[in-house]
Amino acid sequence: MTKLALLGGPQTRTQPFPAYRTIGAEEKAAVSRVMDTGCLSKYLGAHHEDFMGGPEVRAFEADWAAAMGAKHALAVNSASSGLHAAIGAAGVGPGDEVIVTPWSITVSATAPMVFGAVPVFADIDPNTWTLDPASIAARLTPRTKAIIVVHIFGQAADMDPVMRLAGERGLTVIEDCAQIPFGRYKGRAVGTLGHMGVFSLNYHKHIHTGEGGVVTTNDARLAERVALIRNHAEAVVAGRGVTDLNNMLGFNFRMGEIEAAIGRCQLAKGPSLIEARLDNVRRLEARLNGLPELHIPVPREGDKHVYYVHAFRFDARRAGIDRDLYVEAVKAELPLTEGREGEGVLVRAGYVKPIYLQPMFRDQICFGGTRYPFQGPHYAGRQDYRPGLCPHAEAANADIIIHELMRPPMTDADIADVATAFHKVHDNLDQLRDLARTRKAA
User: Fold this and answer.
1) Staple partner for 261: which of 24, 29, 30, 36, CB 3.0–4.6 Å?
2) pLDDT surpassing 80 at residue 1
3) How many Å apart are CA 356 and CA 358, to the nearest integer?
4) In this model, does residue 206 exceed pLDDT 90?
């Protein structure tokens, strides 16, 4: 029996894991090329030939649309901005409801509120952690205007039943693709399955521009409306002959030329980076499959899971200890990752608390201290965001383990060390059960 590092034994590994760095010579050259032109942005918030931005932005949008199989791509300064623009383009407004997930970054639920709509939380599928179509169907009302579907962790949501529901009700479906670039659902490209898709280029995503995002669509009208909201719509509609003024209050969601140039380089690297990630996941899962306390989900047939993170469920009954103590022991065996030392070992117990348990939803206070948009003459419904609303989401946060120790340039030796740490903890669960009893008695 080897003593666990948590109890004073030797660590499985002490050498830091390599950083996930995707920026290289290509991006440096692209930035220098843009700098030499002296044009860092070419947008004008007016009816003008430069309304759609400069040459790098337009080239990046064309490249992105081609890579993702979409007719239109609109670059924005963040995926959050992209969600706001997509909701606005869909015509969502006061009194409307939008079906959202409880298990994501908060903007997945707050974007509708910017336009006065109320988020309605559907539960997740406990096997994929994406929105459950049956729960969506149960939450629909005559006030429902749109559905935001999040492809979580790199796994596509079950889109066919979602789109059937939307078609029956005349609803707009927005795919949050922040964690799934180049992903597939039953062989089809995510971001083209709904009416709009929103991708992230934030610094910790698969590919990035530091900050940035892209909205995709096959609908020319929606593309035009996203472009307007992105760039001061109210000042441009007259010149462009737009007569539908619903949500034509614009913002500055524009991407600069430098970010677009970096994005073109990153886009070209994306497929190889994802394939390296998939290879590492396959190696790690082959080494972990024999551990009975870990349940590793299997992607549905025809899907391409791109593993933003690697997630699995923990069976506390089989382990005989709780999930948090197990993760504490695994983390004690492993080192930090270069460039992210301040975050600790990149293994986590849990993901996020369901969004509806945040104070803003609990107290239904947001704009100006009022209860708008949750209550008022514009809204005929009533939402009760209490614990128990989405039991699968609440349960998932209690049993999920997430880690990032499969990103390139992790080598096979690095992956082996990660697996060894899990096996060491498994082989010494008795030590952790003793520790749990000691802590409980203290």
Assistant:
1) 30
2) no
3) 5
4) yes
What's the Cα-to-Cα distance from 123 to each of 239, 351, 381, rounded to whole Å? 44, 15, 19
Q: How far apart are CA 144 and CA 171, in angstroms?
A: 7
Q: Where are the beta strands (DSSP E) in 309-411?
A: 310-314, 347-349, 400-403
User: Which amino acid is residue 266, in one-letter code?
Assistant: Q
Rounded to 5 degrees, what angle do the CA atoms 354, 356, 360 make? Answer: 130
CA 264 to chain centroid: 21
Q: Which amino acid is at 400?
A: I
- Between CA 255 and CA 46 the distance in angstroms is 16
Per-chain mean pLDDT for the chain: 97
Contact call for residues 381 and 143 (beta carbons, < 8 A): yes
Residue of 72, 144, 140, 82 whose CA lies nearest to 108 = 82
Mean pLDDT for 37-51 is 96
pLDDT digits (tens, 9 = 90+) for 346-384: 999 999 999 999 999 999 999 988 899 999 999 999 999
pLDDT of residue 129: 96
How far apart are the C-alpha atoms of 46 and 275, rounded to whole Å? 42
Predicted confidence (pLDDT) per residue in 227-248, tens digit: 999 999 999 999 999 999 999 9
Alpha-carbon gap, residue 75 to 290, rounded angstroms? 44
Q: Which residues of 349-380 are buried (b: 16+ CB within 10 A; e: fewer)?
A: bebeebbbbeebbeebeeeeeeebbbeeeebe
Span 259-294, pLDDT tens digits:
999 999 999 999 999 999 999 999 999 999 999 999
Rounded CA-CA distance 379/368 in Å is 17
| CATH class label, 25-266 | alpha beta
The dihedral built from the CA positions of residue 74, 76, 80 and 85, taken in this order, carries a sign that is negative
Q: How far apart are CA 61 and CA 55, in angstroms?
A: 10
The reported pLDDT for the residue numbered 442 is 80
Q: Where are the domains of the chain?
A: 25-266
Average pLDDT on 70-76 reads 98
Quote the pLDDT of residue 156. 98
Q: Return d(Cα 108, Cα 86) in angstroms, integer.
A: 12
What angle do the packed helices 429-441 and 323-333 form, to 10 degrees? 120
